[in-house]
Amino acid sequence: MIDAIATVCVFVNDQAKAKAFYTEKLGFEVRQDSPMGASRWIAVAPKGARTEVILYKLDENWQHYRQVMGKSQALTFNVTDMTALHADLKSKGVRITQEPDPQPWGTYMMILDEDDNALLLVENPK
């Protein structure tokens, strides 16, 4: 029986730069950072989350994914305080492509990581 999503890959050009973005700017924790061939297996996640984000460097085995780097992968992160997060990310220079927008289903904001991967942040309605 399947009971959870284990990992989601985000394809990046520079793993060190991506790791810094996800940990220093978004506050994720590093779950694993191990050698893997010519690159590394880097898993990050929000504290307490079950699903990990793998920061995967595109190599010759994964070139077919080059077309999706820098495009939205519909990767959504839940947010508990959009106002505070917005202020924090803005102060850290995170590129915000959609300012917080309240909707009946929740408030959302879009940001870009260092490789232009679009990330959707959603705070559920109260």
Q: What would your notes on this structure say?
A:
It is a single chain. The chain is α/β, with parallel strands linked by helices and 126 residues long. The chain has one domain (7-123): 2,3-Dihydroxybiphenyl 1,2-Dioxygenase, domain 1 (Roll), CATH 3.10.180. It has helices spanning 15-25, 82-91, and strands at residues 7-12, 29-36, 39-45, 52-57, 75-78, 95-103, 106-112, 118-123. A four-stranded mixed β-sheet has the order 1-4-3-2, with helices on one face. Strands 5-8-7-6 form a four-stranded mixed β-sheet, with helices on one face. Strand 7 and strand 8 form a beta hairpin. The chain starts with 6 loop residues before the first strand and ends with a strand. The model has no long low-confidence stretch (mean pLDDT 89).
How would you briefly describe this protein structure?
It is built from two helices and eight strands, in the order βαββββαβββ. It has helices at 15-25, 82-91; strands at 7-12, 29-36, 39-45, 52-57, 75-78, 95-103, 106-112, 118-123.
